[in-house]
């Protein structure tokens, strides 16, 4: 299994970056696009890296925020066959801490290649999409000011539009998560994967005792972590001192699992 980072907040290879996430995943003979960043940058970087987006068999959207689904229109243009799997709640209106709309382009809602997921779905052998599950939440979910529209009012987002991609190959269970808004500890506790790839959404979390406690909880699990994007570089460095199986992946990097 290979994962290439098409776009993320940082790079060590001199490629352009943006606040967002897009991963190109190769598992067996299948090619998957996981998220598409906030613009067409993922496609430009794919070309620079020699990644042919026309070969993508299907795409998975982690949740309904612009920095993960902003490039979907571009993907539909460059790939004429792939379906896009997203939560049935993904197009609900979402807003940031300043009450600015940070959801998806509503014009794409009627696109025929979008598959709205309402529950666990196996796309192919060893490839499964899981929705969030309230019964698996044991740690408090911190919205960090993010909101959703409910009955005409803005309320804290419950992130019911979030979903996760589980990949199983050669006896390994690899979980891909976009921002882990439902709580990275909740997600790890629920799935207990061998490897977890994705953002932890700690970039607004102050360095200190609370973040250290989160790192220790994650480190107590038998999981290897590859994080990025919304974790925050300083938060990653801080957590790294408490975690011996934590790595950071940046734009242009490829990891083999």
List descriptors.
6 helices, alpha/beta, seven-stranded mixed sheet, 257 residues
Q: What's the total helix number? A: 6
Helicity level, as a percent range? 10-25%
What percentage of the residues does DSSP assign to strands (E)?
Answer: 25-35%
Distance between the termini: 5 Å
Largest sheet: 7 strands, mixed
Can you count the beta strands?
17
Element-by-element helix/strand order: EEEHEHHEEEEEEEEEHEHEHEE
Give a quick rundown of the structure.
The protein is an alpha/beta fold. The protein has helices at 41-49, 66-69, 72-78, 184-191, 209-219, 233-240, and strands spanning 2-7, 22-27, 30-34, 58-60, 83-87, 94-95, 114-117, 121-124, 127-131, 147-150, 153-156, 163-169, 172-177, 195-198, 224-227, 246-248, 254-256. It has a 7-stranded mixed beta sheet. Strands 8-9-12-13-14-15-16 form a 7-stranded mixed beta sheet, covered by helices on one side.
Secondary structure layout plus pairing:
Layout: E1 2-7, E2 22-27, E3 30-34, H1 41-49, E4 58-60, H2 66-69, H3 72-78, E5 83-87, E6 94-95, E7 114-117, E8 121-124, E9 127-131, E10 147-150, E11 153-156, E12 163-169, E13 172-177, H4 184-191, E14 195-198, H5 209-219, E15 224-227, H6 233-240, E16 246-248, E17 254-256
Parallel strand pairs: 3-4, 4-5, 5-7, 13-14, 14-15, 15-16
Antiparallel strand pairs: 1-2, 1-17, 2-3, 6-10, 8-9, 9-12, 10-11, 12-13
Helix pairs in contact: 5-6
């Amino acid at each position: 299994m290979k994962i290439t980072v098409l776009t993320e907040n940082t790079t060590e290879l001199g490629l352009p970056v943006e606040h967002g996430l897009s991963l190109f995943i190769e598992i067996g003979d299948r090619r998957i696009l996981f998220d598409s960043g906030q613009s067409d940058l993922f496609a430009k970087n794919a070309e620079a890296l020699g990644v042919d987006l026309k070969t993508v068999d299907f795409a998975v959207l982690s949740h309904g925020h612009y920095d993960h689904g902003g490039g979907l229109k571009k993907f539909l243009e460059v790939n004429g066959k792939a379906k896009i799997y997203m939560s049935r709640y993904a197009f609900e209106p979402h807003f940031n801490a300043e009450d600015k709309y940070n959801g998806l382009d509503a014009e794409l809602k009627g696109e025929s290649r979008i598959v709205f997921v309402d529950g666990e779905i196996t796309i192919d052998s060893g490839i499964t999409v899981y929705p969030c599950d309230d019964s698996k939440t044991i740690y408090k979910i911190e919205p960090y000011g993010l909101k959703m529209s409910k009955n005409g009012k803005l309320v804290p987002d419950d992130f019911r539009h979030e979903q996760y991609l589980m990949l199983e190959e050669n006896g390994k269970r690899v979980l891909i998560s976009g921002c882990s808004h439902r709580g990275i500890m909740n997600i790890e506790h629920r799935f207990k994967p061998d490897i977890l790839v994705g953002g932890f959404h700690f970039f607004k979390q102050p360095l200190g005792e609370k973040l250290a406690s989160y790192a220790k909880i994650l480190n107590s699990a038998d999981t290897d972590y590859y994080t990025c994007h919304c974790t925050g570089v300083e938060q990653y460095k801080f957590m790294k001192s408490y975690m011996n199986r934590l790595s950071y992946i940046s734009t242009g990097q490829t990891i083999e699992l």
